[in-house]
Amino acid sequence: MLTGNRLGAAEREVRVAEIEDLSPRLRRLRLLPCDRAPMAASPGSHLLVRVPGTGRAAAYSLIGDPETMAGYEIVVRRSERPDGVSHRLHGLAVGARLSVSPPRNFFAPAAGARRHLLLSAGIGLTPFLAYARAFPPQVDWHLVQIVRPEERAAFARLTAPFDPARITLLDGRAALCWPDWLDQPLDTHLSACGPAAFLETVCGEAAKAGWVPARVHVERFTAAEGQAFEVRLARSGGRLSVCAGQSLLEALESAGVSVAYLCRGGVCGACRVGVLAGRPEHRDRVLDAEERAGGKVMLACVSRARDDALTLDL
Amino acid sequence: MTEPQTFRNALTFCNARETLLRFPFPFAADRYETAANLEQNDRTGPCAALRALFDVDAHYRAEIEEKAFVLARDPQRCTLLPHLDLAQWDVVELVMSSLARDFPQLFRLDRDGRRWRWRNAALGIDQSFRFGDPDSLPCPPFEYIARQTQGDMVLLAQRGDMLYLDGGMLTAAQGWSLPFDLGMSWREIHGEVTGEREQAAIERGLAFALRMQPETQVRRPNWVICVTPRLDNGLETAAEWAGLYEGAPPADLGRNLLLRVEVQQLYRLRRSHVILFAIRVYMARLSEIATVPKWAARLHRVLRDLDPAVARAKAVPFRDDLVAYLAPFDDGAPLAPGRAPF
Question: What CATH number corresponds to the domain at position A47?
Answer without folding.
Answer: 2.40.30.10
